[in-house]
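PT: before anyone asks, these are the final sequences, not the draft ones from last week. 603 residues across everything. Please model them as a single complex and drop the result in this thread when it's through.
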Amino acid sequence: MSDGLARARAALDNAAASAALAGGLGLAGIALFTVGAVLADAFGAPILGDSEVVELVVGISVFAFLPYCQMCDGHIAITIFTDRAPVRVRHTLSVIAAVLTFLVAAVLTWRLIVGGFEVWERERVSMFLQLPLWWGYGAGAIFAVLWALTAGFVALERIVLRPAA
Amino acid sequence: MNGYDIGIAMFAGVIGMLILRIPVAVAMLVAGAAGYAAILGVSPLLANLKSLTFTRFSSYTLSIIPLFLLMGEFATKSGMNRALFEAARAWLGHRPGGLAMATVGGCAAFGALCGSSIATAATMSHVAGPEMRRNGYSGALTTGTLAGGGTLGILIPPSVILVIYALYTEQSIGALFIAAIIPGLLAVLGYMAVIRIYVALSPASAPPAAAIPLRARWGASQQVWPAAIVFFVVVGGIYDGWFSPTEAAAIGAVSVGLLGIVQGRIRWPEFVEAVRGTAITTAFIFLILLGAELFSSALALTRMPAELSARIVAIDVSPWLIVTMILLIYLLLGCVLESLAMVLLTLPVFIPVIVALDLGMSPAQTIIWFGIMVLIAVEVGMISPPFGLNLFVINSMSKGVSMGETYKGVIGFCLSDVVRLGLLMAFPGIALWLTGIG
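LR: through. Structure below.
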């Protein structure tokens, strides 16, 4: 069982790191794009609606960062009140935290996908550039699904791997 | 259960979950969702969640946060932390406690490139910590200085907390950044004074070092130019309205990144590391922002903040006493809560109070001044014994320094912060003067 877990962790670690890198490339690309837009504006050829591109890509990048943060246990929790609790109590709390996180991730992802279908059907677009909103929802949803998977995996891992007490 | 009780229950729920180690963002999302469903029902909640997440993540103004985080990561990877420390050391190193002062100077300069206090403390710990220890500085002075210096990361603009405060209160990000400059410089002076006094009381904690020849000092200072230029372009550009805060952050990230590439310090592996660091921090900040959005909209529905703030304003005491009480609450909360969550959880209640109090300033002035006060109070919380978050980060990075020594070393810095809060309370102009807001 724990052998399977280790393999699943390796695979998810890989996927999450790739997603984070993709998001980072998007973010760096947007930084370059924005500098280009500022320069274009300075030389009298402003790019109208550049902020819509920034919004769209940064939004997708944030979704792309979530799985990696989950696998690295990057979401801040306050531990000082329970640091002296017995190992078993702390383990139980960490299981509860992971299961709650998974539920939150799953519900948010589910609603995001439903919302994405809605903006697709209604053909919602951005104001200036007419960028279809579902692009953002769709790309975000791919990473959100990966996020829900990582959160589910972390919960499972904590339930299965009991601390040696 | 009426709205007021639901509001109180939401707060109780969040605090309960936080104590039981539920991640901050998850606790806010769960309590927010419960409150929202309790007032409007489950289907309106589910309908709201269809667009809430994407709308919150995909925001032009919030894009400034990952861009500033990327800039801070690039600054570390391109060795600016070391360059800034060495430059400050060249000028200050031979004075009593000079290496500690150089650490404060380096932290302040790095804070101008980085919007986070923990990141500043961590990155400066790498370069300044070992140098101080190698030169015989005591553990207490070393970790105390790094903890205090780290808080300059959020006090000196850019600052993630100020960006979020500005967005929440609908004030200009530029005005808040500018308002933080003089308080930030006062913090640097205050910390240097603390070091001077510390060394006078305990000379053994900081053995003297030899002065560096003038020529070498200028040589070390050359390394500072890129950082100084980036700071002035970014903060000055926002202030003068040359470009939007998001554009400024993009320019900062690109120029620091390019500099690192040109100097050969940032290659593919370093780029990947910088991106990963940015990814973790961005993800946890944005999830907290999402939680705060749901929480505060549910809280507004309960009408609890409005009622509570009306009750507070109706108390027949001096408005300054109320401000003092609020700041005390921040100092106390700061000892146990994560700073971002603390600010986001409390603003819905405190901002209406602050605006309703007659403090002799215009509403815009009051909100900007209060933002700087909150920023400092939050910052003290992060370095206050026994729970301050920065203390643990720095202590874990400094081998062979006990937690007790760290507590001892940091107290002076905390006191200097409290003095600065008092000064700003007596003279709000310290924060408001440069902003020119009437």
